[in-house]
Amino acid sequence: MSDSNQILDEVTQSDYKYGFVSNIETETIEKGLNEDVVRLISMKKKEPDWLLDYRLKAFRKWQQMDMPDWAHLKIPPIDFQNIIYYAAPKKKETLTSLEEVDPELIDTFNKLGISLEEQKRLTGVAVDAVIDSVSVKTTFTATLAKYGIIFCSFSEAVQEHPELVRKYLGSVVPYTDNYFGALNSAVFSDGSFCYIPKGVRCPMELSTYFRINAANTGQFERTLIVADEGSYVSYLEGCTAPQRDENQLHAAIVEIIAHKDAEVKYSTVQNWYPGDKEGRGGIYNFVTKRGLCEGANSKISWTQVETGSAITWKYPSCVLKGDNSVGEFYSVAVTNNYQQADTGSKMIHLGKNTRSTIVSKGISAGRSHNSYRGQVKINKNATGARNFSQCDSLLLGDRCGAHTFPYIDTKNASAIVEHEATTSRISDDQLFYCQQRGLDAEKSISLIVNGYAREVLNQLPMEFAVEAQKLLAISLEGSVG
Amino acid sequence: MLEIKDLHVSIQGKEILKGLNLSVKPGEVHAIMGPNGTGKSTLANVITGRDIYDNISGEIIYKGKNLMEMAIEDRAREGIFLSFQYPVEIPGVSITNFMRAAMDEIYLYRGKKPMSGGEFLKYFNEKKQFVEMTANLANRSVNEGFSGGEKKKNEIFQMAMLNPDLAILDETDSGLDIDALRIVANGVNKLRTPENATIVITHYQRLLDYIVPDFVHVLYGGKIVKTGGKELALELEDKGYEWIKDHADIQL
Ligand SMILES: Nc1ncnc2c1ncn2[C@@H]1O[C@H](COP(=O)(O)OP(=O)(O)OP(=O)(O)O)[C@@H](O)[C@H]1O
Ligand SMILES: [Mg+2]
C-alpha cells in the first residue's frame, strides 16, 4: 500500500556499522589462481602431502566445472584471476598467549564486540577469531581440553589431529560437490575445527567469528564439526567485512558429522557487508553447509539469520542417514536495497523414521530479491519419513521480489511431506496500531518484522537472539529507497 | 483539553466530516452516537493522526497544541489513546513486549527513566487484574487469534497500562458479552480522574449505563447535530435516527 511505502521510504538509511578497515600489517600473496598458488597456500600452512593432494584434485576438478546458473540470482562475471587467495595478519611464529597478538587485532575484535580475553567474557562462549585467511586466536582451548573437546583453528587441527581431519574432511561435502565447494577445497585457508568426544555435553557455546579485512582478497574458510556418539554441542558463527566499492568473494564450507545419539545446533548470524544503497560493493556469499546425521537418533539443526552480503547462495542441508535422525532448518533472510538472496535447505531422508523441519522466513525490501529454494528428498528405504516445510515471505514496499522454489522427491509411499507457503505485507493498519501506542514508524516496522521472524529467532541462543533482533532492525532501515 | 473547530475531512473525494465542532474538558466523558458510516471512526482516526485522508481542514487543539502538526506517535506520547473498533493482529509480538516497547518510547519522550524489567512486570500484572485478563492471554501475540471480545478487553488493558489523558473508545462494547461489558466498563471507570477525559463511541445506550457520560452527541451527516445529557441516548434508542432529522439542534 502506498502509505506504508511512503513511511518505509522516509525511514532513514543507516550505515553498515562494521564497515571500518583495520590497519593491520598483512602478508598477502600475488593475485591469481593456478596450481602453484594452491601449492603455495599448502606450503605456507606446512601441510602434509595428503592434504596438498586433496587440494590439487579439487583444483583440477574445479577447472572443469562451470559456475552454477540455476539460482534466481544475477551474478556479474567473477574474475577469479583478480582475487588474492591468501592474506594473513603478520605475526610471530607461534602464538601462545594474548600478549603476542597484534593490539590492532584485539582492537578490531573489540570493536566488533568480540573479546579475545577469556577473563573479560561474561558469558561462556569460546571463540575462534578468523581474520582474512587465518585464525588469530581461539579462546578457552585449555578449559575445553579438560572435557576432551578439541576446539582450535583448522590449520592447527591439521598439525595436531591429522587423523581426525583426514577421516572427516570432505566426507560430507566432497570436493566434487559443486563449483564453489571445489574452489574452497582447493584454496581454503583456515577456519575452525571441533571434536566433541563420546558422551560429552559441551559446557559452553563454541563460536567462530569471521572477519574480512584485506582488500581484493577472497575468504575461503572451512569448518569441520564432529560430534561423537551421544555428545552435544551448540555452535555459533558470525561474520562482518569492511565497506568497499568492489565486491569480495566468500566461499566457505561447513561440514558437520553427528554420530549415534549426538546433537549439533549450528547458528549463524550472517552480516557480511551488503553493498551500498545503489548496489555497489558487498560480499558474494557462496557457501556450502551440510550436516550428516550419521548415526541413529542423531540430530542437526541449522538456524540462520541472514542480513548481509550483496549476493547469498546458500543451502544448509542435512543428510539423514541414521534411523530416527532429525534435521532442522530455521532461517530468516533479509534483503534490502539491491541485495539478492537465494537460500533454503535440502533434507535428504535415507534412514527409517527420519524427520525434518524447514521454517523459512524471507523478508524483502527495496529493490531486493529473496528466494527460498528447498529440496526434500525421501529415498526408498526411508520408511516412515516425515517432513514439514513452511516458507513465508514478507514484502516491504512494491519494488522487491519474493520467490519460492520447493522441490519434493518422494520414493517411499509411507512418507509424509507437507509444504506450506505464504506471502504477506506489513499493513497500514498494523503500522498505525503500533504508532498509536507511541512507537515511531521505524520501531513499529522493526517490531512487526521481529514478530514475523519470532519462530526462528526463538531457536537462537540467548546472546545471539538479542544481536539478531537488533540486526534485523538495522538491516531494514531505509527499507524502500 | 480537546478543542475541535469546523473540522472537514474527505477521503477519496467524498466529504465525510463537514464542519464538526467538539469541546472536551478534563474530567468529562463524552459519548458520540450516530448511524453506520457517518464518520465516527473517521473522527477518532483524525484525532489520533491516521494519514489516509485527502483533505483535512479546521482546527484540532489538544492541551493547547495544534494536533494537525504532530506525528501519530507524538500524539500518543502526549497522552491520546485509541481503543480500536477493529484491533489488528501483530503475529509473533507478545503483548508484554509490545507494551514494553511502547512504554519505553513514551517514557523517553516524557524525559522519564524507563522502568526496569522487574518494575514493568509488576505494573503489567497489576493492570492485568484491572480487566480480569487471564495470564494466558497476556502471553500471546497481540490480538492473534483473539476472539472479538478478547480483542476489546486487550484494548482496555493497554489503556490501563498507558494511562492516557484522552481516551477514545471506538465501539469497545461491540462483541462483548454481558460480563465482559461490565468488566471493561468498570476498568474504564476506575481509570477516570478529574484530569483525564474519555470519548465513548457507541451504538448502544447499554454501555452508557455503566460508563455514564456527561454529554451525548449525535453525529449525523458529517456534523454533530444534537447534544444532550445521558437521557438523549435513551431517547435515541427509543426513536431511532429518523427522529433526529426533525429534532436536530442545527440545520441539516
Ligand atoms: N479507507 C477508506 N476509503 C474509502 N472510504 C472510506 C475509508 N474509510 C472510511 N471510508 C468511508 O467513510 C465513511 C465514514 O466511515 P467511518 O468508519 O468513519 O464510519 P463510522 O461512523 O465509524 O461507522 P460504523 O458505525 O459502521 O463504525 C463511510 O462511508 C466509509 O465507507
Ligand atoms: Mg466506526
Task: Provide an overview of this structure.
The complex is a heterodimer of chains A (481) and B (252). With 481 residues, chain A is of the alpha/beta class. Chain A is built from twelve helices and 23 strands. In chain A, β3 and β4 (134-138) form a beta hairpin. The longest helix of chain A has 15 residues, at 49-63. Chain A is globular, with a radius of gyration of 22 Å. The two termini of chain A are 15 Å apart. Chain B has one domain (31-41, 71-246): Rossmann fold. In chain B, the strands form three sheets. Chain B has a six-stranded mixed β-sheet, with helices on both faces. In chain B, strands 2-1-4-5 form a four-stranded antiparallel β-sheet, with helices on one face. In chain B, β11 (215-220) and β12 form a beta hairpin. The longest helix of chain B has 18 residues, at 230-247. The mean pLDDT of chain B is 92. Classes of the chains: A alpha/beta (481), B alpha/beta (252). Magnesium ion binds at residues 40-41, 85, 170-171 of chain B.
Q: Helices and strands of chain B: which structural class?
A: alpha/beta
CATH architecture label of chain B: 3-Layer(aba) Sandwich
Could you describe the largest sheet of chain B, including whether it forms a barrel? 6 strands, mixed
Which outline of chain A best applies?
A: globular
Shape of chain B: globular
Total E-strand runs of chain B = 12
- Name the CATH class of chain B: Alpha Beta
Strand order, main sheet of chain B: write it out: 6-9-10-3-11-12
Radius of gyration of chain A: 22 Å
Distance between the termini of chain B: 28 Å
| CATH fold field value of chain B | Rossmann fold
Number of helices of chain B: 9
**Number of helices in the DSSP assignment of chain A:** 12
Number of strands of chain A: 23
Ordered list of secondary-structure elements with their pairings:
The complex is a heterodimer of chains A (481) and B (252).
Chain A: H1 2-10, E1 26-28, H2 35-44, H3 49-63, E2 87-89, H4 103-111, E3 125-131, E4 134-138, H5 141-145, E5 150-153, H6 154-160, H7 162-168, H8 179-187, E6 192-196, E7 205-211, E8 222-227, E9 232-240, E10 247-250, E11 253-258, E12 263-270, E13 282-293, E14 299-306, E15 311-314, E16 317-320, E17 326-335, E18 340-349, E19 355-364, E20 369-378, E21 386-395, E22 401-410, E23 416-425, H9 428-436, H10 441-452, H11 454-457, H12 462-475
Parallel strand pairs in A: 3-7, 6-8, 7-9, 8-11, 9-12, 10-13, 11-13, 12-14, 13-15, 13-16, 14-17, 15-18, 16-18, 17-19, 18-20, 19-21, 20-22, 21-23
Antiparallel strand pairs in A: 1-2, 3-4, 5-6
Chain B: E1 2-11, E2 14-24, E3 29-33, H1 40-48, E4 55-62, E5 65-66, H2 72-77, E6 80-83, E7 90-94, H3 95-109, H4 117-130, H5 135-139, E8 141-142, H6 148-162, E9 166-170, H7 178-191, E10 197-201, H8 205-210, E11 215-220, E12 223-228, H9 230-247
Parallel strand pairs in B: 3-10, 3-11, 6-9, 9-10
Antiparallel strand pairs in B: 1-2, 1-4, 4-5, 7-8, 11-12
Helix pairs in contact in B: 6-7
